[in-house]
Amino acid sequence: MNGYLAISIRGTGRALPSRVLTNADFEKMVDTSDEWIRTRTGILERRIVSDGQSTLTLAVDAARDALADAGMAATDLDLIICATITPEYPFPATACFMQEQLGVPDIPAYDISAACSGFVYALISAAHFIHHGTYRNVLVVGAECMSRFTDYTDRGTCILFGDGAGAAVIGPAEREDQGMYYCHMGADGKGAATILCPGGGARTPASRETVDQRLHSLKMNGREVYKFAVTKMQQVIHDAMVAQGLAADDIAMIIPHQSNLRIIESAREKLGLPAEKVFVNIDRYGNMSGASVPVALDEVRKSGVVGAGQWVLLVAFGAGLTWASALIRT
Ligand code: COA
């Protein structure tokens, strides 16, 4: 999708549980090793919620942080979109609970389910509303409690995921050069079964059997996802740069979804991008699905490495299978 959308990022925020699960902790839980996890994934530790915390509490904390960063009140918002695959309840939308907790009656609020691509899908949706004048200030959040949908007896998946939330307040462009210059969303439903939570939906409602068979947690064909991700990540970055005629030197930071350091490094090397232009925090947080990109975006913005007028490229892929990119001039 080409076409300029006149938006700006007004503020960003994040919320991460304080509880840390290290690779050494996993050595005590399943047949694995710190060395295997480090070399195959790049993950050293991840954050996990404690009792009383949930997708909603993280989402609201990240939203408040983003509003403070934007210097705005919740009542300035016109729309809330929450990207999550680990919602507070199967229904209604987590975004509606956020709306209530933030104290903004009547404004629309809904969730987007696009897994690790969810935040970028939501951001692109928000940008269209803002550009066309439908809504002015939109809160976009990626929030996940992956730990609540993880089977901690399955060494092939449990070591990968963490909990967290990131948020951005998006509004109209404040300068002429500011905006989203390119965006792209894609999906391939043929791969829908490669990562899924089989139990608890309309197809296989919760029962004693679904609990006994551990069907309420994420199942993944890691090798298949790896093959898809490694090709898609490279292609999506390449397409965005070509569409806008940008070289590596022109981009201040690429913010990729954090699912596996090897996937990020493979794309970076094949595209000839310098390490300092591709943001990595998977070592500290693991894969937080829809929260990975907005948490990384907040860390990048607050580190001061991206100034006004510079290019930032957000790239994500995940269950669905889905993928998305957004090229933004800050
Ligand atoms: N510790 C030790 N050994 C493990 C292990 C663990 N935590 N998990 C799997 N293994 C074993 C496997 O059982 C297998 O053993 P075998 O050869 O005796 O059968 C071996 O390691 C290799 O397994 P494989 O699945 O081929 O490993 P891999 O190099 O592909 O790494 C992933 C596994 C999950 C890290 C990798 O496939 C991956 O990152 N996939 C993409 C995941 C992803 O991005 N998901 C989210 C999408 S957003």
Your description of this structure?
- Helix content is 34%, strand content 25%.
- The protein is of the alpha+beta class.
- The strands form four sheets. It has a five-stranded mixed beta sheet, with helices on both faces.
- It is globular, with a radius of gyration of 19 Å.
- The structure holds coenzyme A.
- Residues 32, 36, 40-41, 116, 155-156, 159, 195, 220, 222-223, 225-226, 229, 259-260, 287, 318 line the site of coenzyme A (COA).
Question: Helix tally?
Answer: 11
Q: How does the overall form come out from the CA principal axes?
A: globular
**SSE-based structural type:** alpha+beta
User: Helix content range of the residues, please?
Assistant: 25-40%
**Between the first and last Cα atoms, what is the distance in angstroms?**
19 Å
What is Rg?
19 Å
Please outline the major beta sheet. Answer: 5 strands, mixed
Q: Would you tell me the overall average pLDDT?
A: 97
Strands, count: 14
How are helices and strands ordered from N to C? EEEHHEHEHEHEHEEEHEHEHHHEE
Oligomer status: single chain
Poorly predicted tracts of residues: none
- Which ions, cofactors or small ligands are bound in this entry? coenzyme A
**β content, as a range?**
15-25%
The strands making up the biggest β-sheet line up spatially as 1-9-14-13-12
